[in-house]
Specification:
With 91 residues, the protein is mainly α. It has a domain of 56 residues. The protein contains 2 helices and no strands. Helix 1 runs antiparallel to helix 2.
């Protein structure tokens, strides 16, 4: 009768390697998420600045006022969004 080899040590080592790889993937995903979020925040800021500048160049006061109000609203609401996601990605 043949004996069954004890593979528990091999299985534990494989499970440990899978766990380490999973941790590395999660850490890299968080880092990539933070970089993407920072980039998106910069793009949004630039678009809002451009919106305000374009409205000011029209010479129409109400358009400039409306664009500034819109830009400020988006800045303030997105700030909460960006801070929340940044906090979650850093934890």
């Amino acid at each position: 009768m043949t004996s069954i080899p004890d593979v528990s040590a091999d299985l534990e080592a494989a499970a440990k390697r899978v766990e380490e790889l999973s941790d590395q993937v999660a850490a890299q995903a968080k880092q990539n998420g933070l970089l993407w979020l920072e980039g998106y925040e910069k793009v949004l800021k630039n678009l809002l600045d451009m919106e305000e500048e374009a409205a000011k160049k029209t010479g129409v006061d109400w358009a400039s006022t409306l664009a500034t109000a819109h830009a400020n609203f988006v800045r303030e609401t997105s700030e909460v969004f960006f801070q929340t996601l940044t906090t979650q990605l850093k934890s």
